[in-house]
Write a structure and sequence with these properties.
The chain has 305 residues and is an alpha/beta fold. It has 2 domains: 217 residues, P-loop containing nucleotide triphosphate hydrolases (Rossmann fold), CATH 3.40.50; 65 residues, Alpha-Beta Plaits (2-Layer Sandwich). The chain has 11 helices and 14 strands. Strands 6-7-8-3-9-10 form a 6-stranded mixed β-sheet, sandwiched between helices. A 4-stranded antiparallel β-sheet has the order 2-1-4-5. The chain has a 4-stranded antiparallel β-sheet with strand order 12-13-11-14. Strand 1 and strand 2 form a beta hairpin. Helix 3 crosses helix 4. It starts with a strand and ends in a 7-residue tail after the last helix.
Length: 305
Amino acid sequence: MIHTEALTRTFGSRPAVDGLDLDVREGEIVGLLGPNGAGKTTTVRMLACLLSPTSGRAWVAGHEVGKEGQAIRSRVGILTEAPGFYKRLSVERNLRYFAELYGVSDPRRRVQHYLARLGLADRSPDAVATLSKGLRQRLALARALVHEPQVLFLDEPTSGLDPESARDVRQFIGELASERRTVLLCTHNLPEAEELCTRIAVLRTRLIALDRPEALKERMSGSRVIVELANPRAEFATGLHLSVVRAASLDGSALAVEVADPERDVPALVRRLVELGAEIRSVQRDERTLEDVYLELVGGDDASA
């Protein structure tokens, strides 16, 4: 549904997006993660035909960026981080204006459908200026969907929302995949990305990782295991003397052991610890969080993530 080949955009001599190769399948929700200035918004603007690529090629919903802009714009919906509305107009009139702009055949019916679906039907006569930020975000989602696009670009859809509103928006986004809509989600919210996304693309001008959240965590977790001890002693770290043990350190009651292959080597490790007199409470692999993986990939200096 989205396909790019060496997609590049420069501003002067500075590359904002550098040689992006990306495929997003129909019905997928792909998270686009990266530090501020990594090229996420620039990528979306190019794919939505709001900004021309400097070089490379891209296709959205079967149409080529730069050659079939009108066809692409009619097939995509966009939710920006700070969506603008005609605040003096009613909720219904705002949405109907955009439905008519897109040439929706029965705008009144379509508007009522999405107002009801997003819990805004009872606020339809109210001026947008009277809505809370959470309700405005729902209206922005309705506006992005009113023309039934195949592809959605969502930029920080829950930014600044209270927990209940953010949950409602996430739930709605999750439903879109079941409708075979394709979603490219730009976010700094890592738990949100892990909850919603089938795959995650980490961008830092160039694409540096692309995989399922669990696969990314597994790939970056390494081979460290944590042994929780009831009777921690220094010799449990220094006296292992096993060929499969690369390093060991004790921090309180937690013995961290780097082994060659956790699945294969943990039984031998446990036997050796028992021989040394260790009382073992638990043994588990040192699993990485998505935040750990992200910070390692981008260099750990994105304070806003």
